[in-house]
Amino acid sequence: MHRLWIGSALILGLIGIGIGSYLFFFSSGSGSLPDGVTRGGQSIASLETTNAADRPEKTFALTAEEKEWTIEEKESVEAWTYNGTVPGQELRVEQGDFVQVDLTNNLDVPVTIHWHGVNLANNMDGVPGLTQDAVQPGESFTYKFVAEDAGTYWYHSHQHSSKQVDKGLYGPLVIEDPEENGDYDVEETLMLDEWPVHQAKDGPASRQGMMESRRSGDGEADTKDLYDTFTVNGKAGEAIDPLEMEQGETARLRLVNAGFQQHQLAFPEGSAEVIAVDGEKTSSSGDSSANIVEIAPGERIDVAYTKQDQTPVFLGEPGDNEKARDMRIPVLPEGTSRSEAAMASPETETTARGADQSTDTILFDQVPEPDVSYTMDLSMGMDMGGGGMSFQINGRTFPDTPPIQVQDGDIVKVEIENNGSMNHPMHLHGHDFQIQSKDGTTLEQPGVKDLVHVKPGESYTIYFEANNQGEWLFHCHDNNHAELGMSTIVDYDSVYSPYDLGGDADNHPS
């Protein structure tokens, strides 16, 4: 189970806010509030700064800057980067370290850093307009947190994410478990993404793609319409660095989907085992072997891959279309070349999804009695103001979506239903949740995650404990969908946020 850093101070909050007053609060700053609505508790601005105490310290500097980035030979894009590369610098620390990251913004737009999957103090979560003001051009901000839980994580801007993450503002964060050092012959972090290299991305989603999704039943159709090139660690096709492995060696592959489209990686039959999802070790009693690993936007899946022979092979996206051919990782024993490698094509395809994995640690031994119950109806609709499509939670778009209102210590039950025609990877900040049932059937071996990929017609029931006070985003991690409204807030009743959406800082959390 993750051990949350909470500290002695209370963090962020609102009291008794309905849908209308919720919108008013985030647009009104320090002005008056509607009758009956008050600001209680402690402002995030007065919180104590996290300190290192007697923990080992790891310090990093990240600079947001523009860079022409080469994706493959003769193909480049104007990227926004941390420290000039896509992905940004890998931040590798050990469990228990005190981590300090100094962000400097050399772009001409505001940015932030969100520590995806890391349970930390709310004022370090990096969500503009909710937990901080966005970092302005030429300014800096320092993030501080304790690396409590070993696993695979990542960082990315949460300011106008549908554009900034799309343009490359992301990187990997690995929190090592010292007891696992030396368990694998090879270790590699592989960040998957997609780019509009040969076309212009016109807005966060296309109406044509949405309509195609409805007609075809393909929950990815809208996102597929936006991108023409797949990448691994910022490179495509022959520019992807090979894995150098010999027969009998085992690699830990830390897969991170930084894009907005689900991806699949095919492995030779019997060579791969899912060993962790969203930073949680998978249960040895569950079926964690697969030929194809499917990874949703925002999700992290760790795979132990064993090289079965000396034959060079490609691991990558199944299929033979141009985009699939972009995302192929060569595995080359000494003395072999990329030109000799063939795509892994298992005879019998078994697909592993993150949401289907049981984990060693669970939050609740039995189905708990909830203090708070919330139904999250995911759907599409029309944006009456803009005249286009929108993505809704309970018939509303952010910031007008109804919040999940909790008190510290509450057990929270959320029933998530996808009544639309597109996939929605729903990610909760600041907490882990237990997936207790799928499509109305209780799982015998539940799993703990911070993201659940809900496909059209699917439903999940999740539980979590409200044990990390603050104002926490719960949103679709296809950030194109979040941009068009699919976000809400887990709102603790004893704390409040002094920050505004929009305003002088141009805070834009979607």
UniProtKB/TrEMBL annotation:
Top EC group: oxidoreductase
Pathway info: Nitrogen metabolism; nitrate reduction (denitrification); dinitrogen from nitrate: step 2/4
UniProt main location, coarse: periplasm
Bias (Polar residues): 347-356
Subunit organization: Homotrimer.
GO molecular function, one term: copper ion binding
Gene3D superfamilies, A to Z: Cupredoxins - blue copper proteins
Lineage of origin: Bacteria, Bacillati, Bacillota, Bacilli, Bacillales
Protein name per Swiss-Prot or TrEMBL: Copper-containing nitrite reductase
